[in-house]
Amino acid sequence: MAGRPAWQRQLALLPLLCLPGLSCAADAVFNTGKGARLPAIALIIDDLGGTSTPGKRAISLPGPVAMSFLPGGKHTAELARLAYDNEKEVMLHLPMQAIGQKARHRHAGELMTGMPQPEFIDTLSRNIAAVPHVSGINNHRGSLLTQQGSSMAWLMQALHDHGELFFIDSRTTAETVAADMAQAHGVPSASRNVFLDNEPTPQAIRKQFRELVRRARADGTALAIGHPHPATLAVLAEELPRLAAQGLQLVPVSLLIERQKERRLAWQESSSR
Q: C-alpha 237: how far from its chain's center?
């Protein structure tokens, strides 16, 4: 347990953990007191590690916003340790081959179609080792690779064997099979619902944030991915402290996965009856 972030150690010991001015992070406090659970939001900032200042600004965001680092980033190790020290979930932003991607645009450590399985697994292992305190993975690009059942089966079997990592499907293509393969191999997983900043202007980001809130209220949970653009970080710094007053909770990604799993199991049990 000593290697886990402080928030995980605290959740194991306490029935309740609240962040000042924000929502409570412990799954137990999804309850409102009337038996209903508040809608929950989780956020990932990815593409981190290449530059220091935007990474530090992302890490300073309030609440349990996950930080996802490219394995070849110049500042990845330094910033991952800083994120961990600031009680953020640390993730690997795993490079995967995209449709139409040219060889010169490859990232360090990129998983490619056509890789022999030993090379694929070795590359994955080196990427995981490059990010200190990693607790989960989401794909960087991958519109081609995440469609490949065999590649995703290799990936998920390796994560299952690792035994401690969750997987978030960034959904860079509608044809992805990554989440299905994760479920088939028993890897804790969820899928991105909203991209915050495909258009990195304050107006567009606020619109996407409103869509995130709408999805959370409609479905009970919602997961967004953003990037360390100045506008994204500025909007989140304003909007995150307002969530509690709107009856919403900001939670770690791993807890969102657990809640979605509970909902699926409850639905399956209800259906079987």
A: 18
Do the Cβ atoms of 145 and 111 come closer than 8 Å?
yes
Q: Are the C-beta atoms of residues 111 and 120 closer than 8 Å to each other?
A: yes
Task: Please report where in the chains the tokens 């928030």 appear, as a residue.
Answer: 7
Domains identified in the chain and CATH numbers: 44-195+237-260 (3.20.20.370)
- Cβ contact 94:264 at 8 Å: no
Query: What tokens does 211 get?
Result: 């869509």
pLDDT along the chain (273 residues), means of 10: 45 36 40 66 98 98 98 97 98 95 74 96 97 98 96 97 94 96 96 97 98 97 98 98 97 97 80 72
CA 257 – CA 153 distance, rounded (Å) = 20
The residue to which tokens 């919403």 are assigned = 248
First to last CA, the chain: 39
Which pLDDT does position 272 carry in this prediction? 74
